[in-house]
Every structure is written in C-alpha cells, then in structure tokens.
Amino acid sequence: MSTALDAIITDLAAEQSALARVLDSLSAGDWDVPTHAPGWSVRDQVSHLAFFNEAAARAITDPEGFAAEVREFMQAGADAEARYLARGRGMAPGGVLGWWRTASSALIAAARTLDPDVRVPWFGPAMSPASFITARLMETWSHGLDVVDVVDADRPDTDRLRHVAFLGVRTRAYSYAARGMEQPAAPVRVELTSPSGEKWILGDAGAADVIRGTATDFCRVVTQRRHMADTDLEIHGPAAEEWMAIAQAFAGPPGQGRRPGEFVEEKSV
Q1: What is the pLDDT of residues 201-223, one digit of tens each?
Q2: What residue ranges define each of the domains in the chain, with the CATH number in brackets?
Q3: In what helix (H) or strand (E) does residue 17 lie, and over which residues does it extend?
Q4: Is the pTM of the predicted complex or chain greater than 0.90?
Q5: What Cα–Cα distance (Å) separates residue 44 from each residue in 30, 147, 246?
Q6: What tens digit of pLDDT does each residue of 244-264 get?
C-alpha cells in the first residue's frame, strides 16, 4: 500500500473516532433533534453515514455485487434515500449507533486491502482509492458537523481538514458542472490557516482571484455547511466570489446549502 493512501485511511479512522466520542455522549432525546438539513434529524445524519459506509466497504470487497446494488439504487430514485432513513428511524438510538460503528469499522478494514492503482466503483464514476477514502472522510466530518451544530457536544477541528480543503479545491469544476454552468477560465488561489496554525496554499499560486481565511471556514463553505456570509473568509475577485456561492465538494445534484444569517451568532463569537 502506498504511504499516502495509508495516511488518508488513518485519518479517516481518526475522524470516525472523533465522531464516535460525540455520538457516545448523546442522550436518547438528542437523536431526534432536527439538524440544519431540512427534514433530517441527528439519527438521519448518522443513518446516512452508516448506509454509505456499508456501501463503500462493499464497493471495495465485492465490486461486481456492488454494481448491481447501484443499478437498483438508481432505479429506486427518491425511494432509495427514504429506505435507509426509514431503517434508521425504526431503530432505537443504540441500534443506529451500532449500525454506524459496524459499517465504519468494515470500511476501514476494507480500505486497508485497497490496491492504490485500482479504481473503486461508486454511484458516479469510479474513483482512485485516495479520492474514494478522502470523500468518505469529508462525509464523516461534514455530517458529523451537522450533529455537533445542534447538540451539546464538542468536536474540535484538526489538521485532518487538509483533506476536505484539498477536495473542495479539486471539485471547483464539478460545482459548475452540477449546475450546468461553465467554469470561468480565471484561476483561484486559496490561502488557508489550519487549526494548528499552518499555512496552506491551494489552487493556482499566481492567481489574482484569492480566497483567504481559516480552513475551518473554507471547509464549511465548500461542504455547504455554512453560507459564505456567515464566515470570515476574505473573497477577492469575481471568479472566487462566484465559486464560493456555488461550491460543492460532495457528489450529487446541487445542494440546498445554508441560508445567510443562519449562523450569524457564531461568526460574531
């Protein structure tokens, strides 16, 4: 296994552990608290992660069988999401937690067997192993944030956000494609301060359009967990402004995102 891929898997396992500490601290009532994703409770966020971690493990260990599941999932349309949410809604909190724990462990075990040169099938195009595991880390962090945002729990950001920031920059073109828009030719430079104080420069180092701020703010915007107006990001140039208005690091149709002012109190802290 490549050192780079192993490091990403290790960071995914650490991100899962950080979320596990939050979930272990929840009261029974916390599991049904609404999150900022309309119609989704805490248990729905965890069910989403459990379902797709199960799917990711199968994509690695049984790609042919997984391909058949993808066809069925796509044919089901909106019912596919309703089914896995219903599964979680039919469980006691301990059952949802157990489902997520089992699925998360299975994904890590499967990931350790990955050949770094063999692409992994998914619901969209097949992905490189590094991109595949990075996407699972991004999902774990962002859906975990949905939980932390509404319960009395703490999960400090760490420099593992470098994976989310990297994915956010790499998916700039996808953010446009998902909306049937054409990406402007102007490059964008992203200058971030990590949770530990490191400086990260991503994108085109010579670009005139610049996004500058904390990795915490940038990652929340590109995963659509914050509107850019509710952050302290400095956004300079039309290409940078347009991108941040539609940024989407996750696959699928355009996300609804968050409304400006939804987290205004947090910005002022």
Answers
A1: 999 999 999 999 999 999 999 99
A2: 3-148 (1.20.120.450), 161-268 (3.30.1050)
A3: helix 3-24
A4: yes
A5: 12, 10, 25
A6: 999 999 988 898 899 999 997
